[in-house]
Structures are given as structure tokens and as C-alpha cells.
Amino acid sequence: MKKFKIPSIPPTTNKSIRFPNDIIEDVEKAIRGKECTFSAFVIEAVRVALENLEEENQ
């Protein structure tokens, strides 16, 4: 059985960026009805993009 650990919230920094309106609309449509915030979606997308870049550079 997997041992339960209380999760820690990583430190964050507020970063203000501009998105094209069509991208905002597409993201909001993708997360509508799901338990996901705009920020969480963008963070995951950036993580995947960074992993892809790292794999390409190997």
C-alpha cells in the first residue's frame, strides 16, 4: 500500500503575461466543466512543452 504524504505547495511567483483572445477562449472551452483552473492548464502545458524540448535536445 502506498504511504500517504501531505502534499506541499511549491513556491510560486506571480507572472503577468498576455494571451491572444482566441487562445484564452480555447483554453476556457477546454476546461469548462472540469475541475481545472486556467493557471493549472497553462502550467501543465508549459511543463509538457519543456519536457518535449528536453527530449528533442538529447
Description of the structure:
Helix content is 52%, strand content 0%. The chain is mainly alpha-helical and 58 residues long. It contains two helices and no strands. It is extended. The mean pLDDT is 93.
Major beta sheet, specifics? none
Q: Quaternary status of these chains?
A: single chain
- N-to-C SSE string, H for helix and E for strand: HH
Give average pLDDT, whole number. 93
Q: Tell me the number of strands.
A: 0
Q: Please report the number of helical segments.
A: 2
The shape is extended
Structural class: mainly alpha
pLDDT below 50 for ≥5 consecutive residues: which ranges? Answer: none
Amount of beta strand: under 5%
- Helix proportion range: 40-55%
**Distance separating the two termini:** 35 Å
Rg measurement, Å:
15 Å
Give the structure's gist in a few sentences.
With 58 residues, the chain is mostly helical. Helices cover 52% and strands 0% of the residues.
